[in-house]
Amino acid sequence: MTPHPKPGPTQRLQGHILTPAGFVCGTLDIADGRIAHIAGAAVDEATVRADSARPVLLPGFIDLHVHGGGGADTMDAGDAAQTLARLHARHGTTALLATTMTAPLADIEAAMRALAPAIAQPGRGAARVLGVHLEGPYISPDKLGAQPAFARAPSLAEVLALHAIAPIRLVTVAPEVSGMLALIPALVEAGMRVQIGHTGASYEQAVEAMQQGATGYTHLFNAMSALHHRAPGAAGAALAHAQHAEIIPDLLHVHPGAIRAALRAIPGLFCVSDATSATGMPDGDYRLGRQTVTKCLGGVRLADGTLAGSTLTLDQALRNLVGIGLTLADAAARVSTHAATYLRLADRGRLQRGAVADIVVLDAATLQLQQVWVEGVALADLA
User: Fold this and answer.
1) Which of 2, 287, 303, 375 is most buried by a 10 A CB count?
2) Residue 274 known to be catalytic
């Protein structure tokens, strides 16, 4: 991948810095797009939140499930990927996966061709598009959620052909679909992460998919077989066995109590926005793949009322998590570090020497963004 334009001289930020070992009050130096040095004294979180004179520096947010933003949808042609990447960068997301929709194969191919340049050559002032999250078409026709009715039988040849157009980092599948269990190991062998989602799988089918190499769950609790004490379903399999899973913390998709249950059960639970083209836009009608969706009352829905993605950004996700009782350090890990670990990104999602200088700077009291750095370059405009 071609890096963002590099700054010239070393630049220094000051404040309370969240390192892997905890907060320090001190300085962070950036050189050649990476963190060159961090120095300071350890400080507890209570002190950090009480010190209004110093900003808080956290790892840049990483969103592995983004359909759109700023009026642009990943299934569109043209510069849609750059438009949504700029919108999410202004909300602290420094790296993301552009997420496709279930659609006719020709539509997915066209979307991949449009996404490929944005992945190869990032735009200034935009989040890094790390690759593609293929959400469908290999899902259950009975658990479409807001996906259009174009689910299809799994095909390794199709996935590899799409992967040749633009790099696929993550695939959502329904284990109960005929042929899916045999496909999962091949996808893993090709270097993709496989997640269980849009599924009516039984607990046993979901566990078998994990044994075949599936390692996560797509928007946990949503569009999947629910937990019942005599039929635990896919949600129960996630709570019982998963190390990682996505969750949408907009407080519409999942009740705070269910979020807290998932936090207790899944060590690497991480947050995604599932953002649509309506994100950052006024109320009204927008596109989600081939669907028309309506933004109103803080959410996005189909005509029948079905939730259809969200308008969430990860800075608001962070505030929501803190609002339901998480520490700032834990909330930061859920919107950054755990996603980086899941995607095997050792040099992102952490403020430490040698890491990519993806940094968000926030007001300690309000957790509102003050500045965003993407690969060592400060965004000029957060408006």
Assistant:
1) 375
2) yes
Answer yes or no: are the C-beta atoms of 184 and 212 closer than 8 Å.
yes
What is the rounded CA–CA span in Å between residue 371 and residue 380? 8
Pairing, β 56-59 against β 11-19: parallel
Instruction: Give residue 8's pLDDT.
Output: 56
- Look-up of token digits 């700054």: 7
Domains of the chain plus CATH, in order, are 11-58+350-378 (2.30.40.10), 61-342 (3.20.20.140)
Q: Tell which residue, 170, 93, 92, 94, has the closest CA to residue 138.
A: 170
**Which residue type does 15 have?**
G
Rounded distance, CA 277 to CA 285, Å?
10
DSSP H helices, the chain, are 45-50, 80-89, 105-120, 156-165, 180-189, 203-211, 233-241, 256-265, 314-323, 328-332, 338-342
Cβ 88 vs Cβ 129: under 8 Å: no
> Which one is catalytic: 73, 107, 250, 274?
274
Please report where in the chains the tokens 């539509």 appear, as a residue. Answer: 107
Report the distance separating Cα 73 and Cα 123, nearest Å: 17
C-alpha 116/C-alpha 78 separation (Å) is 11
Q: What is the DSSP letter of 220?
A: T
**Are the C-beta atoms of residues 78 and 114 closer than 8 Å to each other?**
yes
Q: Are 296 and 283 in contact (CB under 8 A)?
A: yes
Question: CA 163, CA 169: separation in Å to the nearest integer?
Answer: 9
Cα-based distances in Å from 175 to 9, 232, 363: 51, 15, 44
Closest-CA residue to 66 (of 122, 131, 125): 131
At 108-167, the pLDDT tens digits run: 999 999 999 999 988 889 999 999 999 989 999 999 999 999 999 999 999 999 999 999
CB atoms within 10 A of CB 156: 14
Give the distance between the most distant pair of CA atoms in the chain: 62
pLDDT tens-digit series, residues 358-370: 999 999 999 999 9
